[in-house]
Amino acid sequence: MARGTDPQALPVASKLVAGSCSGVTMTLVTYPLDLARTRVTSDMAALQSERNFLGLSDCLKQTVRTEGAAALYKGLIPSLGSIIPYVGIGFTAYDEIKLMLASRGGHDNGGGGLGFAGRLAAGAGSGVFAQSITYPIDTVRRRMQVRWTAG
Questions:
Q1: What DSSP string runs through 28-46?
Q2: Using CA atoms, how far apart are residues 18 and 28, in angstroms rounded to an integer?
Q3: Cβ-based neighbours of 121, under 8 Å, separated by 6 or more
Q4: 64-72: long-range contacts (C-beta < 8 A, 24 or more apart)?
Q5: CB 38 within 8 A of CB 145
Q6: Which of 86, 68, 73, 80 is nearest to 25 (CA)?
Q7: What are the CA-CA distances from residue 67 to residues 62, 71, 81 (Å)?
Q8: Closest Cα to residue 52, out of 36, 68, 69?
Q9: How distant is the alpha carbon of residue 24 from its chain centre?
């Protein structure tokens, strides 16, 4: 954002890009844990004697030992394909809902004067909206992660 730019005047496309970039950063940092969680959850469906992992840390260690460190990012591209629109839409919707509620309530400071209920409504609404749009992509991603564990 350029210095002196009014955050309320930021175009929707800029908000989408900013939210998407934060989603990419978040995913790159936390993806190994997400992969391990999916693998451990899938592994728990097996009989106790047939399980491969003792927990998240064991899954991470075994993955690095048997498949290499790069395997911690298997399925990253489909994950980015779901997180980029999810976080981008969520951040944008939150800001737009906040601005709409603020203008209806007579606040002209971009939603900063909204109380707890207003911010809660904006957060809940934007989360439901973003999740509703991106849920099918996330379902495909989870199936791909589990399929890779078997291969």
A1: HHHHHHHHHHHHHHHHTTS
A2: 16
A3: 97, 101
A4: 72/31, 72/32, 72/35
A5: yes
A6: 80
A7: 8, 6, 24
A8: 36
A9: 8
Total-model pTM: 0.70
Cα angle 122-89-144, degrees, rounded to a multiple of 5? 125
- CA–CA dist 25, 56 (Å, integer): 22
- Judge contact between 78 and 144, C-beta under 8 A: yes
Structure tokens at 128: 């439901």
pLDDT tens digits along 28-82: 999 999 999 989 988 888 888 888 999 999 999 999 999 999 999 988 888 888 8
Please compute, for residue 127, the number of CA atoms within 13 A of its CA located in the half-sphere on the CB side: 6
Question: Please, what sign has the CA dihedral across residues 54, 45, 128, 136?
Answer: positive
